[in-house]
Amino acid sequence: MSDSLAQRVFAVLADGAVHSGEALAATAGVTRSAVWKAIETLRADGLAIEAATNRGYRLAASCEALDAAALRAALSPPAAARLRRLEVVWETGSTNADLLAAAAPPVGSWDALLAENQRGGRGRRGRSWRAALGDSLCLSLVTAFEPLPRDLSAATLVVGVCVLQALRAHGAEGLSLKWPNDLVAIPAGGALAKVGGILVELRAEAGGPAQVVVGIGLNLRAPPALATAVVAEAAHGSGAGALPPAGLDGLGVAVGARNAIAAAVISQCVEGLERFAGEGFAPFRELWRGADALRDRPVRAQGGAVPLEGIARGIDDSGALLLEEATGLRHPLVAGEVSVR
Fold first, then answer.
1. Residue 193 CB: number of other CB atoms within 10 A?
2. Which among 36, 169, 194, 240 has most CB atoms closer than 10 A?
3. Global model pTM greater than 0.85
4. For 232-242, what is each residue's pLDDT tens digit?
C-alpha cells in the first residue's frame, strides 16, 4: 500500500463527512482491502478516524488538506510577491532539513515547504518535534540575506511575534511567547503548555549571501496520543524539561481552516523578516515584551557552564533574556534552555 493512496484517502475524508469503504475504493480505483490498509496507516500516523458499522469512515474532526493553490491565493499581496516557490508534500523527514539541503532562493525571494506528515521534525538542542497528522501544521521558509540582519540573534523572537500576530488574527486568545522559541498557552493554575515551536537555522558561506531557514510547528489540536508521547520522551531523558502540549482549538482558533492559518503565518513571517532585515529587532521588541510568558517567574536556565536560577526580568534591547539572581545581579542570556521552576 503506497503513501499516495493514504494521501488520497485523507483528502477525501478531510471534509469530516462519512464515506463508505466502497465509495473510497471506487474513487481511488483500488480494492476495499487496500482502503482498509490505507485507513490503518493513517491511524498509525495519528489521524483519528471513526468507523461506523455499515456506513463507513469519517474523521473525528474535519480538517482541510493542505493545498498549494489555496495557500498561495490566501497570502497577503506583499508575501505573494516575494514567494518564489510554495510546495506541499505528503510526507518528509524534516521540512527544515529539506530546505537546508536545497539551493537557497535569491536575496529578496522566499521558498515555502509544508508537509502533511513530518516524521523527523526537529526542535532546539537536539529534541524531536512531534506532529499529529491532520492536527498540526509543519512548515519551513527559506530566504537569503546579504548582508545579515544586524540583530540576527533575535531572529527567533521576531518569528515568534509574527506567528503570534497571525494566530491572533485567527481568533487566538491566551497565547504567549516563551523565550526564546516557543508559543505557549497558560491554562488555569499558571503552568505553561506548548502550542508551537520555532527553529531558525543558518547556513553561511564565505563571500556570499547567508541562507536562513525558519521552521514552524503548531499544534492545532493536542490529541491524547501526542501528550502521551511527549511525557514518554521526557521520562526517558530525550525530552527532559519539555512542556505538555496544548492545541490552538482550545484558544479560540477555528483550526479546520488549515490553509488560511498557514497562509497567515507565512505572510506575517515573510513581511516581518523583511522588515527585520532592514530595521533590526527594534520594531518587534515591545510586541515581544507584551507577550512574554516568563516575565517575573522563577526560572532555571541551562546551557552555560553552570545552571542558573533566578527570576526572569524580560528581555534587553537585543532580545537576550534577563535572569536576576537572588543577589540582584542580572545575567543576559543569549542562548540556552529555560524552564519554569
1. 18
2. 194
3. yes
4. 666 555 555 67
